[in-house]
Amino acid sequence: MPTETVYGLAARIDQPQALELIFSTKQRPFFDPLIVHVSSIGEAKRLTTQWGAAANALAARFWPGPLTLILPKNSSVNPMITSGLESVGIRCPDHPMALELISKVGVPLAAPSANRFGKTSPTSAEHVEIEFASGVPVIDGGSSSIGIESTVLWLNESGSTAEWKILRPGHISSGEIQTCLAEAKIAHRRKEDLDAKASPGQMKHHYMPEIPLIMVLRASVSLQEVTTWANSKIGELPDQVEGVTLNKPSALAHGTEFVLPRDPILAARALYAQLREQSRLPTDHLIFFQQPYHGDEAWMPLMDRLKKASSLVFS
Ligand code: TXA
Ligand code: MG
């Protein structure tokens, strides 16, 4: 299923066998919960025991769009979707084909990104076809306009003050969340001390391309210096981290610089396609040099993806 963020591997939430197929197709562990995609606010309300004023204001402002709300689930939501958690992630995607599909099926669709676990997310139908060797039917909705996954927002409205926390940064920033809640005159505060169990799926490595990506945080080092350093470190990497297999070539010879457009909107749109394309170049690793402008707030979600996609960080 195409969405404005990345392509999703979708299953009806009322069909356990289809849900199981998501995990087996992706080789995804059951501890990582799925996001449920709806085509309206009405459908979202039927999945949760707590649709309050804050959820309503945020959905009215940002849906359809790249915001996933984590809310208390009700008994209609299969625990396989939520990895046994009492909360469910809900989002209404901003893509006409996704919305049409969900409303025609008549049941919300659980969908993680349509990539093998730990690997680069897909932003085109072709990416999905390559990822699963054409074993999965794909609705071609063109290239994803945003290009990185939705902002995941944990929300609790059980008390007089709505508490929230961003679990995964995305196109919608914490500033926009705050502005929306303030404009709706909703008392709110950012939750700092959220129990780690409430936010699974925070693996250190994720989005990894087929050849190692090396992130360089230091100024003024050459490609060759990075390659020499990486060669001394790559052998020390474990084979797996939190279930994600790391790519460990025995020796790195020729690295290629990985450069994204300077504009963060264009960079997000290009990120995953470029990681896939550059992995097919005659090169054995990619090197991303951090620049001062990568510290801008709008670059934060991109730097999050790039860090997780990196096998090594040269700091
Ligand atoms: O943009 C997106 O969100 C894309 C498109 C397809 O909608 N989907 C996506 O799904 O990125 P996935 O499975 O790759 O990432 C979903 C992440 C999980 O890894 C987890 O971190 C978080 O969302 N999540 C889902 N349900 C949760 C829950 N109940 N509590 C906390 N985190 C949850
Ligand atoms: Mg994913």
Average pLDDT taken over every residue: 95
Unreliable residue runs: none
Structural class from helices and strands?
Answer: alpha/beta
The largest sheet has its strands arranged as 1-5-2-4-3-6-7-8
How many DSSP-defined strands? 14
What characterizes the major β-sheet?
A: 8 strands, mixed
Gyration radius, rounded: 20 Å
Number of helices: 10
Bound molecules: threonylcarbamoyladenylate, magnesium ion
Give the strand content: 15-25%
Distance between the termini: 38 Å
- List SSEs in N-to-C order: EHEHHEHEHEHEEHEEHEEEHEHE
In which range does the helix fraction lie?
A: 25-40%
The general outline is globular
Detail the topology: elements first, then pairings.
Blueprint: E1 11-12, H1 16-26, E2 35-37, H2 41-45, H3 53-62, E3 67-72, H4 79-82, E4 87-91, H5 96-105, E5 109-110, H6 125-131, E6 151-156, E7 162-168, H7 174-183, E8 188-190, E9 213-216, H8 223-234, E10 240-241, E11 244-245, E12 255-257, H9 264-278, E13 285-289, H10 300-309, E14 312-314
Parallel strand pairs: 2-4, 3-6, 7-8, 9-13, 9-14, 12-13
Antiparallel strand pairs: 1-5, 2-5, 3-4, 6-7, 10-11
The structure holds threonylcarbamoyladenylate and magnesium ion (MG).
Residues 3, 5-6, 8, 32-35, 66, 68, 70, 82, 85, 87-89, 91, 93, 111-113, 149-150, 152, 167-168, 199, 201 line the site of threonylcarbamoyladenylate (TXA).
